[in-house]
């Protein structure tokens, strides 16, 4: 039996191997993407310089005496200088490392190999593979390089020197070859090399056709009738109720939701003041609809303190001091009139007569 230290060493070794493989796969994919971008930018550079010339005064003489601008080293240099952003280390490093290869292709290989991407990235520095192939040796993806994954998925590592070639199936498809259908889909067409998966009716978990009569198994929230058709289950009929006392149940296809009652209700069966089971405090039933009670108009006064007035609010009321009164320490007292204030200040003129 392995000791703890041996098990720990084994675990760390496996983790290191897996991490190295993931890092290597990422680097391989990154290198291919960089190379592909360089090739794309080179093509754009060709288009950008297509109608340019040496820039001198006599282009015809220059092309007779020197060479055609179209195939000149000057044009190549102008293109190479604009292949990468200054901040892209990987791009600039790859261009600098293989600058001689660009010159070789430009002067010697361009006519025979017009596809720079294939010549440079795939065949020469070998950081990419042709579409439909993967890995160090550019092996064909699952189901072949012409239609990887039978056209229903993406081959892992497709076009790069990394990956394992397995299929990552499109939504609706599953299986090693992406020919099988996932739950909720059925094979409308199927043979050894082609599969068309079509979505089932929304009520079906699995099915053989498009309608709710073709379900093999119903989804949660749906149930079979006597004829095997999947129909919506109305959860709002559940006993005991699924929603709280201040909520009502809203049935939806295959599910339900709980919605808050109107604030005028004490329990409800739906939205609005006319769907109340009872009225909240401060409201009353008026011909089946809960309406506000005007407490200020009731026979028995609700504001009983001296010099108070009642103000009705929705579902309630407040007591305030009447006009020309203000609250002081919980009591409504009269606001002094301006004349009274003046009378208090003009009382003692005789005190100044002897001066």
TrEMBL record:
E.C. numbers: 5.3.4.1
Gene Ontology CC terms, in alphabetical order: membrane
Residues annotated as signal peptide: 1-25
Major subcellular site: membrane
Keyword entries, A-Z: Calcium, Disulfide bond, EGF-like domain, Isomerase, Membrane, Redox-active center, Repeat, Signal, Transmembrane, Transmembrane helix
Broad EC category: isomerase
InterPro entries per UniProt: DUF3456, ECM_structural_protein, EGF, EGF-like_Ca-bd_dom, EGF_Ca-bd_CS, Furin_repeat, Growth_fac_rcpt_cys_sf, LE_dom
Protein name as catalogued: protein disulfide-isomerase
Gene source species: Salvelinus namaycush (Lake trout)
